[in-house]
Amino acid sequence: QKSVKFDWGKKAEAAFQLLKQKLCSAPILALPEGSENFVVYCDASHKGLGAVLMWKEKVIAYVLTYKNSPYSGGLG
């Protein structure tokens, strides 16, 4: 709304900096123990595909690829 003043204080700046840090750092992935009950979630479209390998609700690895992208093929 045009009539509402936008207030960017110290609390908002701290939250923004924390969000930037989390988005720019690698996620902490779990190490699998044993060979039981792994789950793979995947999704695909005409633009790319992605998959996540999970064990006991913990992310073990993930992969994303995008068609015609210089950033395709990332493996976590």
What is the terminal-to-terminal distance?
41 Å
Quote the average pLDDT: 76
Order of strands in the sheet with the most strands?
1-2-3-4
Tally of separate helices = 1
Could you explain how this protein is built, in words?
- A 4-stranded antiparallel β-sheet has the order 1-2-3-4, with no helix packed on it.
- The chain is elongated and about 55 Å long.
- Helix content is 20%, strand content 36%.
- It has a domain of 47 residues.
- The N and C termini lie far apart (41 Å).
- Strand 2 and strand 3 form a beta hairpin.
- The mean pLDDT is 76.
- By secondary structure, it is an alpha+beta fold.
Descriptive key words:
4-stranded antiparallel beta sheet, 20% helix, alpha+beta, 1 helix, 76 residues
Secondary structure blueprint with pairings:
Blueprint: H1 10-24, E1 38-45, E2 48-55, E3 58-66, E4 74-75
Antiparallel strand pairs: 1-2, 2-3, 3-4
Quick description:
This protein has 76 residues and is α+β, with helices and mostly antiparallel strands. The protein is 20% helix and 36% strand.
